[in-house]
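F.,

This is the one I mentioned.
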C-alpha cells in the first residue's frame, strides 16, 4: 500500500515525464494572428542601438559602414579614450583621430554618444587610477568646452555626453581612473565636466555614471546630488552583463527606475543601459543562440520601459598595447591584450577579423520594428512575436525562445494588398533564407506556415516595398557595382585582385583587374559581402556591401 505522499509524488513524476515527452515533439496547430487593423499605440525598437568598445584609435568601423547603415542605428556610444591624444600640451588641441571616428559614425547614420573617459598627462602627470581630479579644474573645463565646441562646429550632431565609463571599476573597466564608492570624488568631476559641456552647448543632454555595478553607492550618490534640481542629470546610465536574457528587464532596469523615482525632480531622467551583453567574461562562456538571445533580451528592455541602450558592442578589435601604455598599468594592459587578442570573446556583431556574426540580422530586423504596434494573438511563453504597421506595410518578427520545435500558422486577415515575403535567419551560415514570397491577396486562402525550431527567428514583411532579402535596404545595381574611384585605382599601380567573401568568411570569388571601377555581381545571391582589393599580398582596401537583386 502506498501513502498519499507516495501517490502524489508518483503523479508529479508522471506529469513531469509527460511534459518532457511533449517538449521533445513538435507542437502542431499553433495559430498566430497578425491583424494590421488592430494596431494601437506605438513600438520603437530602434531606440535599442549600438556601442563600440574603446579598443583602438584606428577606424574600427570603417570597413563596415555600408553594412551598419542598413541597421539604421539611432545612436552609437563610443569611448572618448586617451589614445585619441586630444590634449597633448597646455592650450593645444588635436582632433584628427577623434574626427576620423566621428566621421565614420555619422556616415553610418547614427548619433554619436561620447563617453568621456580620458586623462591627458598634462593635467594628470602621475599615472595612477586613484588620482581622479586634474591639477587644474579651470583648464579641464576649458578642455571640455573646446571639445564640445569643436564637435558642434563640425556638425556631428552630438546630443548626449556621458560623464565617465565604469568609474566604480577602475582600470578593469578599460579606463584610467577608480573613483571612491561614496562618489565624493566623482561628484566634483561630474559638475566641472557638465559645466564645460553646457558652456559650449546649453542644449546638450548630460548623464552618467555608466556604472559597472548598477547598485553601487556611487550611483546613489549621483542621484542624491542631482535630485535637488540644481545639477542636471538627463540620463542615468549603467551596465549589465548576464547570461539570463530576462534578467535585464526583471532585475536591473526596474531597480534603477525605482531609485530614480525617489527624486521627483528627476522625473524626466532617462534610463540608459549603455553597455549590455551576454557575460562572456565568465571563463569558457559561449552563447550559440546569440541572435535569439539578443532579441529576447531586447524585447524585455522594451517592456520594462528602458529609455535607450547601447549594445556592447559593434566590432571586436585587436588591442595594440602601445596605445594604452601611457595611461594604463602594465598588469591591465597584459590582461586586456590577452582577453581581446588571444581569448577573443565574441562580444561584437563583427569579429576581430571583421567577419559578421548572425546577431547582425537580429538588429537589422529589429530596426524595422518602428511604427504602430500590432498585437499578435496566440503567442506562448516560448513562441514570441513583435509586429508594427507603417501605412499599408507590416513588419513582424516571430521567434522560438527555448521551446520545442513548433509548427506555426500565421494568419494576417487585414493584409490583402501588395506583396509579402517570409524570411528565416540562418544562423549557421550567417545569412537570410527567403522561405516564401507572393501576393498578399493569397494569404486568406493559404496562410503562412512554417516549422519554428528552438531559437529560430522568422521575419515577415508585407506591402508594396517588399522585394529584398535584406528588408527595405537601399537598392544596388543588379549587374555592376562601383567600389573604387579612378584616382584610387591609379595609385594601386598595376594589376590587382578582387576577393569576395560571404558574411561568414568563405571566399566565393576572385577576379583580376587593371583599373576598372566596376565589376559584375549579377550572379551573387542576396546578402552581405566583404570586398577585398589586393595588390599581390598587400591589402589596399576592404569594404562591406549589402547586395540584393
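My design for it:
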Amino acid at each position: 500500500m502506498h501513502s498519499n505522499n507516495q501517490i502524489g509524488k508518483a503523479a508529479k513524476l508522471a506529469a513531469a515525464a509527460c511534459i518532457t515527452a511533449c517538449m521533445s515533439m513538435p507542437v502542431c496547430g499553433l495559430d498566430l494572428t497578425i491583424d494590421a487593423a488592430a494596431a494601437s499605440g506605438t513600438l520603437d525598437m530602434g531606440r535599442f542601438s549600438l556601442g563600440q568598445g574603446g579598443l583602438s584609435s584606428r577606424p574600427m568601423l570603417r570597413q563596415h559602414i555600408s553594412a551598419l547603415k542598413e541597421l539604421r542605428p539611432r545612436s552609437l556610444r563610443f569611448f572618448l579614450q586617451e589614445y585619441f591624444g586630444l590634449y597633448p600640451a597646455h592650450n593645444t588641441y588635436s582632433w584628427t583621430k577623434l574626427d576620423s571616428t566621428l566621421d565614420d559614425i555619422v556616415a553610418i547614420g547614427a548619433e554619436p554618444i561620447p563617453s568621456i573617459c580620458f586623462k591627458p598627462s598634462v593635467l594628470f602627470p602621475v599615472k595612477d587610477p586613484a588620482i581622479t581630479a586634474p591639477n587644474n579644474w579651470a583648464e579641464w573645463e576649458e578642455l571640455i568646452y573646446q571639445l564640445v565646441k569643436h564637435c558642434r562646429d563640425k556638425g556631428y550632431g552630438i546630443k548626449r555626453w556621458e560623464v565617465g565609463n565604469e568609474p566604480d571599476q577602475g582600470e578593469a573597466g578599460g579606463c584610467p581612473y577608480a573613483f571612491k564608492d561614496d562618489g565624493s570624488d566623482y561628484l566634483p568631476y561630474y559638475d566641472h565636466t557638465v559645466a564645460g559641456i553646457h558652456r559650449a552647448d546649453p542644449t546638450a543632454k548630460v548623464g552618467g555614471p555608466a556604472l559597472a555595478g548598477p547598485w553601487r553607492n556611487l550611483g546613489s550618490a549621483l542621484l542624491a546630488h542631482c535630485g535637488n534640481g540644481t545639477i542636471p542629470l538627463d540620463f542615468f546610465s549603467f551596465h549589465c552583463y548576464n547570461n539570463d536574457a530576462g534578467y535585464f528587464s526583471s532585475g536591473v532596469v526596474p531597480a534603477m527606475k525605482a531609485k530614480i523615482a525617489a527624486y521627483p525632480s528627476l522625473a524626466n531622467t532617462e534610463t540608459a543601459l549603455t553597455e549590455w551583453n551576454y557575460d562572456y567574461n565568465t571563463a569558457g562562456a559561449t552563447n550559440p543562440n546569440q541572435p535569439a538571445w539578443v532579441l529576447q533580451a531586447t524585447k524585455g528592455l522594451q517592456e520594462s520601459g528602458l529609455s535607450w541602450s547601447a549594445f556592447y558592442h559593434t566590432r571586436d578589435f585587436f588591442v595594440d598595447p602601445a596605445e594604452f601604455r601611457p595611461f594604463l598599468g602594465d598588469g591591465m594592459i597584459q590582461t586586456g591584450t590577452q582577453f581581446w587578442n588571444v581569448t577573443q570573446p565574441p562580444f561584437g556583431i563583427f569579429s576581430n577579423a571583421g567577419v559578421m556574426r548572425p546577431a547582425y540580422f537580429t538588429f537589422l530586423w529589429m530596426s524595422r520594428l518602428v511604427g504602430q504596434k500590432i498585437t499578435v494573438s496566440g503567442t506562448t511563453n516560448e513562441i514570441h512575436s513583435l509586429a508594427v504597421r507603417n501605412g499599408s506595410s507590416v513588419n513582424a518578427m516571430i521567434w522560438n525562445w527555448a521551446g520545442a520545435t513548433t509548427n506555426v500558422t500565421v494568419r494576417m486577415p487585414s493584409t490583402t494588398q501588395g506583396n509579402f515575403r517570409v524570411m528565416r535567419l540562418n544562423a549557421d551560415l550567417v545569412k537570410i533564407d527567403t522561405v516564401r514570397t507572393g501576393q498578399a491577396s493569397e494569404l486568406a486562402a493559404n496562410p503562412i506556415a512554417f516549422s519554428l525550431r528552438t531559437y529560430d527567428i522568422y521575419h515577415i514583411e508585407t506591402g508594396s516595398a517588399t522585394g529584398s532579402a535584406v528588408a527595405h535596404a537601399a537598392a544596388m545595381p543588379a549587374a555592376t557595382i562601383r567600389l573604387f574611384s579612378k584616382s584610387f585605382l591609379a595609385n594601386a599601380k598595376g594589376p590587382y585582385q578582387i576577393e569576395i567573401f560571404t558574411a561568414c568568411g568563405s571566399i566565393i570569388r576572385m577576379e583580376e583587374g587593371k583599373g576598372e571601377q566596376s565589376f559584375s555581381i549579377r550572379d551573387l545571391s542576396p546578402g552581405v559581402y566583404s570586398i577585398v582589393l589586393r595588390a599581390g599580398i598587400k591589402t589596399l582596401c576592404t569594404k562591406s556591401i549589402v547586395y540584393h537583386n
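Residues 527 and 547 are 5 Å apart (CA to CA).

Talk soon.
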